[in-house]
Design a protein that fits this description.
By secondary structure, the protein is α+β, with helices and mostly antiparallel strands. It has three domains: 5-120, Trefoil (Acidic Fibroblast Growth Factor, subunit A); 125-194, no CATH class; 198-467, Alpha-Beta Complex (Spore Coat Polysaccharide Biosynthesis Protein SpsA, Chain A). The strands form six sheets. Strands 1, 4, 5, 6, 7, 8, 9, 10, 11 and 12 form a ten-stranded antiparallel sheet that branches. A six-stranded mixed sheet has the order 23-22-21-24-27-26, with helices on both faces. Strand 19 and strand 20 (188-194) form a beta hairpin. It is elongated and about 85 Å long.
């Protein structure tokens, strides 16, 4: 049974004020006390859910009053008069529920625009829009949730666009909840892509690995201008990961258990996310090694990733080098690389998992088939980076433009060239032991004198963790 909310002609949502015990029209479209309507035998019943999660039905008795009941009764009933599209009038004893511009609600003896309400269904395009951040494909800009709101005369304001609710219902549609196509201003088309970013990491090994993981995510929290979610792929317990990242809101942190037997399994884990249900709700997504320090906002890079198909990666040396898959490429007479440069698999950005899941799976299957047919598990050709360069070169290609300006290898020619520029990657070799001191030194160089309270607090927590 669908229980819609009610939107007024003034761009407000019908709610219940628990302080005054009255029905009101609220400007807070996400109010916890937003009223819903349930239809039973042709009658409408208004209710909200209180702080104890109990259902509270509402009846007019000289004004809006709480009618506490487990089930609705006739005193709560409103006759329903539809008015096309998604509109409804609510009538009781010959009077109609009316919403005034100042937010007050009362009963009036007529059926005019103040007495008309739009039924806001949870799965409607307008609900999907107001519940998320978006990227405008044509403007190449983020439209944050705060810039999406109902406006007067039954319209929805979406950043710079203003669209009638009737047109939204008739001509707009969502694609798997990830994109919305809008028709506005008579005939103009706009595609909005959901902006629900995820950063994920693969973390295994000894304590030094998790010291680096903590520093890496701490640096993103300080400098990255990022408030999205994190996912950690690991063989450690969830309790341990949460203790390592205890400065992250638990709601933003997800732990995915992927068992490993040796180094090959560890380096392949970053690609073993194609069958993780959790990841399918995110867009865009970026994988990062934990031997990274962030020193600038990552938002613009995430926006650029969300507008590209395939993977965005950091270029390094010539594609004819072994650690960029040259042996695998040379052994496949049908592989003709389009790129002259190979890429580092330490940072991988992609729009969503559906865009890359088959290619990620191909990387894993190619590696394990090679091992099954005689490649030693100690061979560097079994590592993820050579295989990924070979697979992406042959099947889908890869974009180098976005990451080349954002990811910077250590050491640079001059320190100041990579300060405030993006992600500094301490690449070179598998494991953490040989680089933890270098990364800690750079982390302190960037953040030890940071004046912001949040930065100082995070720095102290990382130092305590390292020194424990």
């Amino acid at each position: 049974m669908r229980h819609p909310k009610l939107v007024t002609v003034h761009g407000q949502v019908v709610s219940f004020d628990t302080d005054t015990h009255s029905l009101v029209a609220s400007n807070n479209i996400r109010s916890a006390q937003a009223v819903r309507m349930v239809e039973i035998d042709g009658l409408g019943y208004l209710y909200f859910t209180d702080e104890t999660k109990s259902t509270v039905y509402i009846a007019f008795d000289g004004g809006a009053t709480r009618a506490v009941a487990a089930l609705p009764n006739r005193s709560c009933a409103f006759g329903l008069s539809s008015h096309g599209a998604g509109f409804v009038y609510l009538e009781q004893n010959g009077l109609f529920v009316s919403a005034e511009p100042d937010g007050t609600m009362n009963l009036k003896p007529w059926m005019e625009v103040y007495e008309r309400f739009w039924l806001l269904q949870d799965d409607s395009v307008e609900s999907i829009l107001i519940d998320n951040d978006w990227i405008s494909v044509s403007l190449r800009q983020r439209i944050p949730q705060k810039d999406i709101s109902f406006a007067g005369n039954f319209t929805l304001k979406v950043g710079a666009f203003s669209i009638s609710l009737v047109d939204l219902a008739r001509y707009s549609y969502a694609d798997r909840g990830r994109s919305v196509y809008l028709i506005h201003d008579k005939y103009k088309i706009e595609r909005l892509d959901i902006f629900n970013p995820l950063l994920y990491f693969s973390a295994y090994g000894k304590e030094n690995s998790f010291i680096l993981l903590r520093m890496c995510i701490s640096s993103i929290e300080k400098s990255g201008d990022y408030d999205g979610d994190y996912m950690i792929v690991t063989n450690k317990s969830e309790a341990y990961i949460r203790s390592v990242l205890d400065f992250i809101d638990p709601e933003r942190l997800h732990v995915v258990f992927v068992p490993v037997h040796d180094v090959i399994d560890m380096v392949c884990a970053r690609f073993k996310v194609y069958d993780v249900d959790l990841i399918r709700s995110y867009q865009p997504i970026m994988y990062c090694d934990f031997d990274i320090v962030c020193n600038a906002s990552i938002l613009e890079t995430l926006i650029k990733i969300s507008l590209r198909s395939g993977v965005s990666v950091k270029s390094e040396g010539a594609i004819d080098l072994p650690h960029y898959g040259s042996v695998l490429i040379a052994g496949d007479e049908h592989c003709k690389p389009q790129q002259l440069l190979g890429f580092n698999s330490g940072v991988i950005g992609f729009r969503n998992i559906d865009d890359v899941d088959c290619v990620f799976k191909a990387v894993i299957h190619s590696i394990y088939s090679h091992l099954r047919h005689g490649l030693p598990r100690t061979s560097r050709e079994a590592y993820d980076q050579p295989a990924a360069n070979y697979i992406f070169s042959k099947l889908s290609g890869y974009d180098l433009d976005i990451m080349d300006a954002f990811v910077h290898p250590w050491p640079p020619e001059r320190n100041e060239d990579i300060t405030g520029r993006g992600l500094v990657h301490f690449c070179g070799g598998v494991g953490a032991d040989h680089k933890v001191n270098r990364i800690k030194s750079y982390y302190e160089y960037i953040f030890s004198s940071a004046p912001a309270t949040k930065q100082n607090r995070l720095m102290s927590s990382v130092e305590r963790f390292i020194g424990r």
